[in-house]
Amino acid sequence: MRTSPVVRSLRWLIVAGFATLVSAWAAEVDTLVRTLRDPDKTAEAKGEACLQLMDLGPAAAPAVPALVVLLNSQEEMLRDYSVTTLEIGRASCRERV
User: Fold this and answer.
1) How far, in Å, CA of 81 to CA of 95, rounded?
2) pLDDT mean over 3-28
3) For residue 65, with 0-12 CB atoms within 10 Å meaning exposed, 13-18 middle and 19 or more buried, which class applies?
4) b (16+ CB within 10 A) / e for 8-17
5) Integer Cα distance of 50 and 72 in angstroms
6) CA 20 to 30 Å from 51, out of 20, 63, 78, 81?
7) CA dihedral 39, 45, 47, 48 (to 10 degrees)
């Protein structure tokens, strides 16, 4: 059976839209990781970056190394944010399996 041009166009739009979404998530994670690693950023800015990473769930996986570094922060708030973000990420990955 032959696929109609409309169905092919819709498939292409769905694939293109998904690729754009994944690309946007990757760019956002990269920006948030740079915030976490920047020694000039405040604890509040890094905490906000953690909150945003929590919202991204498994898409935030590339941020794990930066979050692990925060576990050694002198700021208790940052350690707490890091632990919580890592726990939420682990839980969301488990839900997908």
Assistant:
1) 21
2) 65
3) exposed
4) eeeeeeeeee
5) 15
6) 20
7) -140
What is the Cα–Cα distance from 36 to 50, expressed in whole angstroms?
8
Query: pTM of the predicted model, to two decimals?
Result: 0.69
Q: Each residue of 71-95: pLDDT tens digit?
A: 999 999 999 999 999 987 666 555 5
Rg over CA atoms, the chain: 18
The C-alpha torsion from 30 through 33 and 39 to 44, rounded to 10°, is 120
Task: Determine whether 6 is exposed, middle or buried from the number of CB atoms within 10 Å of its CB (0-12, 13-18, 19+).
Answer: exposed
- Burial (CB < 10 A; 0-12, 13-18, 19+), residue 75, is middle
